[in-house]
Design a protein that fits this description.
By secondary structure, the chain is α/β, with parallel strands linked by helices. Helix content is about 35%, strand content about 15%. The protein binds pyridoxal-5'-phosphate. One of its GO terms (cellular component) is cytosol.
Length: about 450
């Protein structure tokens, strides 16, 4: 049932008067007023539904209002709403046990945070203390969060206004076949050249100065570039050779998004630290964390870890994580993400690419796909320039508006539409979303050669 209420105007008015929105020019936004959500849909006060092809910010992996998770939060609220991080408490222990049981290798200790950026901050702090080295290497075309270290590690334009040259961050290029920074012709060349470039960077920066390499296992917001099979094992080997901590950021790619519990599972790579958030509890209550290897955990056996948060391992967040992970296991939600990717999204997007000249590339896995739009398939000129705003971004704004008008809410970044529905999406819903995208691509085609 979809509640219909008439106070949408009051909600909007109070929002515009008092809510300061992220990443926005406050005077230029017109937020959609949401009245409710369930499963793969959310709706406004007039009952107009949108199929959520964005999973909000790629976090509602089990869809909206999963009844088992809602019940777990309600039960936990009635039992114990909050308790300081220094106490041991059943839901926190169980959440850590369930997460550690799924993270790769020996990543068996969990430090809880309130979200992804804090997870990255703490992973970097652990790596620096563990190695006694100052620098961290991160990739261009990446996003790691909006707090101090995390935004400096980020390799997209959102970093530019907050960049502080003293942050100890050195950036390198990761592999990306479609827009190869190495001008490679094949996947093998791309992999080999990307690894050589990373090793050159390490050697010229001075291996003894580098605490960590941080990478999104599959870069998300920056374009869902699935790395060639040999890349991450190659990075692991370089980190081992030079005594560098490997941090895999699975805030977006983790917890089922790629059709496996963690994206690292596709590549057989075990990092030293793994950051997570979003899908761990689908964001029903803010939660993130760092999964820590035995070796790094040992650094803090006798020596205190100099970091903490009032809400680390918050009971409501942990109760929702326990219920989410159990529901994902019981209901085969990770397997569903893999199946929908293989049977519907992959073939459906490739079919759209054949028919629409504006589609330069489609790539992804599970329920984690990017459609890259171009003006010219031959030159690969993007539909809008890198970091375009205002008039320069008009073609993408038109594409976005068309998908929304068809009742589907996309995740759009630069010249790309990301197809990132919940892991619970049905085949019929996925096909309905692709039909809306098909319609929007005819708008993109008008700008394409
Ligand atoms: N790391 C990655 C890979 C992300 O995609 C994000 C958010 O999109 C973050 C970190 C930051 O997470 P949060 O917004 O929860 O701080």
């Amino acid at each position: 049932t979809q509640p219909v209420s008439t106070d949408a105007a009051a909600v909007k008015a109070a929002d515009r008067a008092h809510v300061f929105h992220s990443w926005s020019a406050q005077g230029l936004i017109d937020p959609f007023v949401v009245a409710g959500a369930e499963g793969s849909y959310f709706w406004d006060h007039d009952g107009n539904r949108h199929l959520d092809f964005s999973s909000q910010l790629v976090n509602t992996n089990i869809g909206h209002q999963h009844p088992k998770v809602v019940a777990a939060i309600q039960e936990q609220a009635a039992r114990l709403c909050t308790i300081a991080p220094g106490f041991a408490v059943d839901v926190r222990s169980e959440a850590a046990r369930l997460i550690a049981g799924r993270t790769p290798g020996d990543l068996d200790r969990i430090f809880f945070t309130n979200g992804g950026a804090e997870a990255v901050e703490n992973a970097v702090r652990m790596a620096r203390l563990h190695t006694g080295r100052p620098k961290v290497l991160s990739a261009y075309r990446s996003y790691h969060g909006a707090t101090a270290a995390a935004i400096n590690l980020t390799g997209d334009p959102r970093r530019w206004p907050s960049d502080t040259a003293s942050a100890g961050v050195v950036r390198f290029w990761g592999p990306f076949r479609y827009r190869s920074p190495f001008h490679a012709e094949t996947e093998e060349q791309e992999c080999e050249r990307a690894l050589r470039h990373l090793e050159d960077t390490i050697v010229f920066e001075g291996p003894g100065t580098i605490a960590a390499v941080i990478l999104e296992t599959v870069p998300g917001t920056a374009g869902i570039m699935v790395p060639p099979p040999g890349y991450l094992p190659g990075v692991r080997a370089l980190c081992d050779r030079y005594g560098i901590v490997l941090i895999l950021d699975e805030v977006m790619a983790g917890f089922g998004r790629t059709g496996r519990w963690f994206a690292a599972d596709h590549f057989g790579v075990v990092p030293d630290l793994l950051t997570f958030a979003k899908g761990v509890n689908s964001g029903y209550v803010p939660l993130g964390g760092v999964a820590i290897s035995a070796e790094i955990a040992a650094t803090f056996e006798e020596r205190p870890y100099p970091g903490g948060l009032t809400y680390s391992g918050h009971p409501l967040a942990c109760a929702s994580a326990v219920a989410t992970i159990n529901a994902m296991a019981e209901e085969g939600i990770v397997e569903n993400a893999a199946r929908v990717g293989e049977d519907v999204l992959g073939p459906g997007l490739r079919e759209l690419a054949e028919r629409h000249p504006s589609v330069g590339d489609v790539r992804g896995l599970g329920v984690f796909w990017a459609v890259e739009l171009v003006r010219d398939r031959r030159t690969r000129e993007p539909l809008v320039p890198y970091a375009a705003t205002g008039e320069a971004n008009a073609p993408m704004a038109a594409v976005t508006a068309t998908i929304k008008a068809a009742g589907v809410w996309p995740f759009v970044n630069m010249n790309r539409v990301h197809v990132v529905p919940p892991c619970t999406i049905t085949e019929a819903e996925a096909k309905a979303g692709l039909a809306a995208l098909d319609e929007a691509l005819t708008v993109a085609d008008r700008y394409a050669a």
